Amino acid sequence: MEGYQFIHVEAYSRVSSKNNKRQSARNVINEAIRAPEASSHISNIKPPILVFGQSPEKTLELSESQAVIAKDSIGRKLRKDGLVMVAGVASYPARTDEISFENENLQHWLKLTIEFLSKKYGEQLKSVVVHSDEPFWHCHFYLVPKLDVNNSLDIGLVHDGIAARNTVSSQSAKIKLRAYSDAMRAFQDAYYTNVGIPCGLTRDGPRRRRLTRKEWKVEQEASKRLANTLNRSDSIKQKIKFISSELDKKRIRLEKYEKKLVFLLKKIGISDQFIEKITKKLNDSDNNNNKMERAI
User: What keywords are annotated for this sequence in UniProt (predicted)?
Assistant: First the structure.
């Protein structure tokens, strides 16, 4: 697939900002579930496809009920404008009218995206849904941070930028912004390593990096080749794992036969010295097989 990765996260509170520039968690969830009051921008509304966890509505309920008992970093009751949930979106560069939800490449990207989020956030990843009623395929994911033993809520547990900014001791806004930006770049890099590269996507788009169309096409082709190489490598590793497993099974059977052979030889009166020579030859053959496996 030709294109570049896109993933973005934003933290939300129980209430919208006064100028409505920052929506509330409820408004964000309403847009995700295609509530009528939040879907005027969609001409042909289709229900979201739940691909991981619980529904967005249940995630909203959890974040709001948790916020009621939550405390801030200095032990005070969490304010209504305190951040309680993180919502994210990841986009795949293919049109919904050109490929179906069952498309192999789309499913591969979706699987890797969910694996990346699950590994990073664990049980704090509550829900992932896919939208099919907008021009490009994309998924929305929702994160709710765990409360600690004192019911303290730290949104930084599910937002790298905020976590980095909160660790800065300086009061300088510039230094805090730099820490935030560096952390979010690292987040993008991690997503690129785990999802972008295996899916043949580039880290950034051509405009952001001021590439000519020719340079952009060259980089896209390089990304595709790298993804194909990685996929072939994974396939080879799986085959080697299967072969090793089969060899182990055969080795276990051979060991059983060897014990049975020794028993029969002793029963018919063959000397221990002769039996020892046969056993040594069998062991030498087994060692040669082990060396060949390691070479593979």
Answer: Coiled coil
